[in-house]
Each structure stands twice: as structure tokens, then as C-alpha cells.
Specification:
This protein folds into 2 domains: about 260 residues, 3-Layer(aba) Sandwich (Aminopeptidase), CATH 3.40.630.10; about 110 residues, 2-Layer Sandwich (Alpha-Beta Plaits). It has about 375 residues and is an alpha+beta fold.
């Protein structure tokens, strides 16, 4: 199977989230895998939205390796693309399209690697592929799968195919997404003293957030937590005192600051003028560099972790926030062919040679993991 052609085919499915519409691409992937003797299940996330669970070579008493990715992509943005974002066009060694980097190239590489690993010998313990819906808005597809009571089984290790330019990351920050609301009393803008301006309350809160420094120890892998206000909406018209404002807060947490403590610190900072509601709460994940699986990954990727200032973790969230604890804290690596800086960008692309290389890397990991899989 040609991984480049498959990547192009996956890009041509419109899975922009919202609304996602992952059912068609899920069944397409499932059909490919069933044609190669994988057992495939499609746990439903929502109408027109499916997850894909595919397994082959499972052996009782031996945990399989898990490869995972998501099927949805972000919107195109307002800027005009120089190529058709749904075509998968190739130019100068780059494969363009929405989802090329984040992360349909990774999904394609995992599919091809999983199929090709069974051409000669079956990997010890077998392979499990988990492809999810609605990851981009907070790993909701994976979380729904977990909360539904689905029997996910076990894992010897987890590979998350998010964009890392084939550089292994051993962890990533957590995410706490919060909606903040302020309320007031409306009045004519010529008599503001008769009203209570909700936007002013929001502005005071946002100024406090801008200055907020979480008083926690630095995480050796993930650094310090961060906070950002990303969206605000308030007021009805120019000449009225606004009585409602809503804005969003995005906190990226570490192992030194879990989401419960982060929320508590946010409440204490903002006081009773602001009502806070959690949208997403996913904790950070990390695996020790000393774990045999991580050492295997470093060897396969020829990665020198002792170099000064070498990047070892991702700042973005992945489904590992859900899957790793669900799978009993199995050792987890984030490793994919996409370019991290191109995720969610106009004219998103992935290098063709990185996609081809990732198939080789995944296959080698799967095969070598068999030797340490107990």
C-alpha cells in the first residue's frame, strides 16, 4: 500500500470539526483494514461520527501495542490557500492539505505500518489501532469512548501519531478549558450610571489573568504552566450598557499543577465577579526516559536525549490524556511525520519523505517492541 496515496485519499474526506462527519472516513479506513484481516469495530460517538478500533494478532495474556490518531481536522481559516486544501497536492516535496500534518499523514502511516508488519511474522501480542472522532475540540471522542464503558483492553505501549517531525516526545502538557461569564444590568449608554457594565467586569478579570503566575515548581519535562484568553463576546449594541459577557480561558497544566488546583487558583484570582465553568479538563502525561519502551524509541529514531535544549515534550494536547490513564498508564510516546509548526496553519503541509520515514519507524518500533513485550 502506498502511504502517500493513502494520505491524499484521507485528506480528500472533509472532516472539518465542527461538524466532523468522521463516519465516512472511519468506514473507509475500516474497510481497508478488514481487507487485510483486521477485526474492526466502529463505536459511535454521535450522529455521523464514528471512532475506529481495529485489531489483529491479539494473544491472550500478552498486551498489544496501540497506535492512535484522530480523524477530524480544524477549519480552513479566513486566509486564501494557494492550493486546494482538500486535494492533497504535492509540490517541491511537500504534501499540502488540511490535515496533512495534523494528522492524516500520521494515520495513513500507522495503517500502512500495521498492515505491513504482518507480511512476514506476527508481532508478539498483536496490534491495536484506535482512531478517534472529535479530538480537536478537547479529545471528546476518546473521552466519550472511555466514559461509555467500552472494553478497550490492555496495551504494552502507546504511540500517538501527532505531528512531531518524527522526533519522539515523551509527554505533553494537560489542558483546562474554562468558560468565564460576567453579568450586569443593561441601561442606555447615555446614562451608564443606571446600569452595571458586564464588559468592565470581564476586562478587570482578563487583566488579572494576564498577570497570573501559577506559583508552582517547574516541571523538568514540561516547564511551567501557561494561561491564555482566546475568545470574548459581550454586549448587544453600541449604545447600551452590556449586561452579559463571556470569554474563554485556556490553561496548559503540568505534573506540578493539576487541573483541580489550577481551577482553584483561577477562582481565587478572579473572585465573585466571574462565574467559571469547566469545558475540558485533561491532565498532563509523561513517561520516564528510563522505561525500556522509551529507550527502544530513542534507538529507532536515533534520538540523542542528552543534547542540550533538545525538545522532549509537546505543548499541545493529545488523546493520550484519555488513553494513557485508561490503559493503565502504559508507556506513551508522541511521534508522527507532521510538522508541529504547520498544525492548524493556512497552506498546511507535511514533507513526503517524513511520511515515508514514519512508516519505517513505526514498523521497526512494532517489531522491536515484541522483544520486550512481556
Amino acid at each position: 500500500m502506498n502511504v502517500i496515496s493513502l494520505t491524499q485519499e484521507l485528506i480528500q474526506f472533509n472532516t472539518i470539526n465542527p461538524p466532523g462527519n468522521e463516519e465516512e472516513i472511519a468506514k473507509y479506513i475500516g474497510t481497508i483494514l478488514m481487507n487485510h484481516n483486521f477485526s474492526v469495530d466502529y463505536p459511535k460517538y454521535a450522529e455521523g461520527r464514528l471512532n475506529v478500533i481495529a485489531t489483529k494478532g491479539l494473544v491472550k495474556g500478552i498486551k498489544p501495542i496501540v497506535l492512535t490518531g484522530h480523524l477530524d481536522v480544524v477549519p480552513l481559516g479566513a486566509a486564501k490557500w494557494k492550493t486546494d486544501p482538500m486535494s492533497g497536492e504535492i509540490s517541491n516535496g511537500k504534501l499540502y492539505g488540511r490535515g496533512s500534518t495534523d494528522m492524516k499523514a500520521g494515520v495513513a502511516a500507522m495503517i500502512v505500518a500495521a498492515i505491513e508488519c504482518f507480511e512476514n511474522n506476527s508481532p508478539k501480542g498483536g496490534i491495536k489501532l484506535i482512531f478517534t472522532a472529535d479530538e480537536e475540540l478537547g479529545c471528546n471522542g476518546a473521552k466519550h469512548l472511555c466514559d461509555s464503558g467500552y472494553d478497550i483492553g490492555e496495551a504494552s505501549a502507546i504511540i500517538v501519531g501527532e505531528p512531531t517531525s518524527n522526533t519522539p516526545y515523551i509527554g505533553h502538557k494537560g489542558g483546562l478549558y474554562v468558560t468565564a461569564k460576567t453579568t450586569g444590568v443593561t441601561a442606555h449608554s447615555s446614562m451608564p450610571e443606571l446600569g452595571d457594565n458586564a464588559i468592565y467586569k470581564a476586562a478587570r478579570a482578563i487583566t488579572k489573568i494576564e498577570k497570573l503566575k501559577f506559583d508552582v515548581e517547574k516541571d523538568d519535562l514540561l516547564g511551567y504552566p501557561t494561561v491564555n484568553v482566546g475568545k470574548i463576546d459581550g454586549g448587544l449594541n453600541l449604545n447600551s450598557v452590556p449586561d452579559k459577557t463571556e470569554f474563554t480561558i485556556d490553561i496548559r497544566s503540568t505534573t506540578k499543577l493539576d487541573n483541580k488546583l489550577a481551577f482553584q487558583m483561577l477562582e481565587e484570582t478572579l473572585g465573585n465577579e466571574v462565574n467559571l465553568e469547566t469545558i475540558v479538563a485533561l491532565n498532563a502525561i509523561s513517561t520516564s526516559e528510563n522505561h525500556p519502551f522509551i529507550q527502544l524509541i530513542y534507538e529507532v529514531c536515533a534520538f540523542d536525549s542528552t543534547k542540550e535544549d533538545v525538545k522532549k515534550s509537546a505543548s499541545f494536547l493529545t488523546d493520550a490524556s484519555v488513553l494513557t490513564p485508561w490503559l493503565n498508564q502504559a508507556p506513551t510516546i508522541i511521534l508522527g511525520p507532521g510538522e508541529p509548526a504547520m498544525a492548524h496553519q493556512t497552506d498546511e503541509y507535511c514533507y513526503v519523505d517524513k511520511i515515508i520515514e514514519s512508516v519505517k519507524i513505526y514498523k521497526e518500533i512494532i517489531i522491536k517492541n515484541s522483544s520486550i513485550n512481556i
